[in-house]
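Thread: Modeling a multi-component assembly for a lab meeting

Hi all, long-time lurker, first post. My supervisor asked me to bring a structural picture of a complex we are working on to next week's group meeting, and I have zero experience with this. I have the sequence lines for every component (510 residues in total). Could someone generate the structure of the whole assembly? Inputs are pasted exactly as I received them:
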Amino acid sequence: MLQRITEGDARGTLAIMARQVTSTTLAQAVADHLRMRIHRGDVSPGERLPAERELAEQLGVARISLREAIRQLREDGYVEVRRGASGGTYVTELRRPAEAWRARMREQVGEMDDILDFRIALETETAVLAARRHSESSLVPVREAVDALRDVIGRTAFRQADSRFHVALARAARNERLEEAIEAARGELFSPRDLLPFREPVEETLRDHRAVYDAVRAGDADGAAEAMRAHLERSRQQLRIIVFGAEDDAEWPAS
Amino acid sequence: MLQRITEGDARGTLAIMARQVTSTTLAQAVADHLRMRIHRGDVSPGERLPAERELAEQLGVARISLREAIRQLREDGYVEVRRGASGGTYVTELRRPAEAWRARMREQVGEMDDILDFRIALETETAVLAARRHSESSLVPVREAVDALRDVIGRTAFRQADSRFHVALARAARNERLEEAIEAARGELFSPRDLLPFREPVEETLRDHRAVYDAVRAGDADGAAEAMRAHLERSRQQLRIIVFGAEDDAEWPAS
DNA sequence: CTGGTTGGTGTGGTCTTAGGACCTTTGGTC
DNA sequence: GACCAAAGGTCCTAAGACCACACCAACCAG
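Re: Modeling a multi-component assembly
Sure thing. I ran the full set together rather than chain by chain. Output:
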């Protein structure tokens, strides 16, 4: 109904050809990529990124492009750079970016829920597919990620175990598009359980993961989907507390 | 955590920092955008794109970038370009790109299923959300898209009505991420029902759409999800026939 | 046959990217 | 203390992407 410019006009011209198309600069793409990896916890606070020359080669970009990306991350407080023999690019404790993320989520009401609804769409179906078509071997990493959560100490370990679980499950579902979309969505969420003042609910998460794992292993697609949905809804509640909850409960870890 | 720089290995360096990061050229982005719109059927065979200067401005790019994109599309057989007063860029009958798409789907076994599983993930949850939070007014376009299918004549009209249904439903679900992802996934699928030799199953699609619509309107989230899943599974069967089925049934439309 | 619309082409300038050479800082080793 | 190696910091050159603008060439309607 919006298709035609006018009925009288003889031409089949489209009225509007849609929103603006943009291309990102390479440096921007690299910055986004690194930021996402930090959000997801692939690199933890205190850890060092590879040396510039090396990292640039790994990412397939020129060093100057990587440097520009690092400059952005440094401005936003994600990394610190030190020179010299044991220098390098180190991930900070992420307080400033975490606080900025929190402020943004508070401002942009609904964005957090949108991301979570998106994750629910992706991950419940991932659980369904994993239940249907997992192989014995593809479940091993999932199991390991569940077990890792049992013995976890500290936030970094918690986040990494959590992340590994979701990634391993996506891999068991054998769909690269789903896997990539899940990783991207998780990158937007800042994996903030361990970065913001909040005592991570290890027990609860462990129960949730185990429930998903058991259903998947049993081939129970509906059960897996429901367990995953329940898990993500609990995550939503936790995030609500983190973003909107009492700030005075703040309890930054000593280390 | 900060101190774990040393621990076995002297440095906390990450071994591999993941896959290569690339940036697309603007022309490439424009070409992808236009190709996707053609795949989705926003522009139909025989229709003319806006004049270069105008389209470039709409897309927010320089004319030369747009021209480069058009050159790509022309090479792939998507458009033909004519000069002169009633010249312009016209969408072809798409036989060559449709055949190329079909060949690719046959070669890359599983890609089609991956895309469809991805769509199922996105669209079943979209149906759930739409059932839960639709407004009266947001259902109007959905209803119109269902009705449009009833009176449809010809492939172009069929495809456009089909496309409008899915987009309208996504909008009723009020989640931009879902909406964009659905549009992108649909763009990959080439909406090939009307471009490849196949008699479109209007009745069946109409029934499916109506079932989804009714469930959404009734607020029946589970029913909407199941109806959508059934609809997409039927689409999968149709696509299987198109891609792998008997080629001799080929029956190209006169127009 | 002429004017306006449309694609086709060329020029000049700025920004991005790549790749490499060389400098500076720093911590550790001899 | 002198020196070395490893890291980031800086600078240069060349190639390509992108843009604005002007002008050319084809075409068709009036």
